[in-house]
Amino acid sequence: MKHLEKISRGRKIWNYVVLHAGNNDAAGWYSERMEKLFHKKPVSVVNISPVIGSHAGLGAASVALLFE
């Protein structure tokens, strides 16, 4: 979360996407904290594709920021 705060400082966030590899708990955790940080809900919460999941591993979670 500190990294997300740092890279978004001074930039306007249009929205964000929460991605996870079969980890609904982590997706919920990120969604809650991101909503508090940016005062908006994610545009989508997505269970990532098998191709990305095979590289990131089961249980991985991430956030993709969409800047204006």
Helical content stands at: 40-55%
Rg result? 12 Å
Q: Which structural class do you get from the secondary structure elements?
A: alpha+beta
Roughly what is the average pLDDT, rounded to an integer?
A: 91
Can you offer a commentary on this structure?
There is one protein chain. The chain has 68 residues and is an alpha+beta fold. The chain is built from three helices and three strands, in the order αβαβαβ. It has helices at 2-8, 24-38, 50-56; strands at 13-20, 44-47, 61-67. A three-stranded mixed beta sheet has the order 2-1-3, with helices on one face. The longest helix has 15 residues, at 24-38. It is elongated. The model has no long low-confidence stretch (mean pLDDT 91).
Summary, kept brief:
This protein is 43% helix and 28% strand. The protein is built from 3 helices and 3 strands, in the order αβαβαβ.
Any key phrases for this structure?
68 residues, three-stranded mixed sheet, 28% strand
Secondary-structure blueprint:
Layout: H1 2-8, E1 13-20, H2 24-38, E2 44-47, H3 50-56, E3 61-67
Parallel strand pairs: 1-2
Antiparallel strand pairs: 1-3
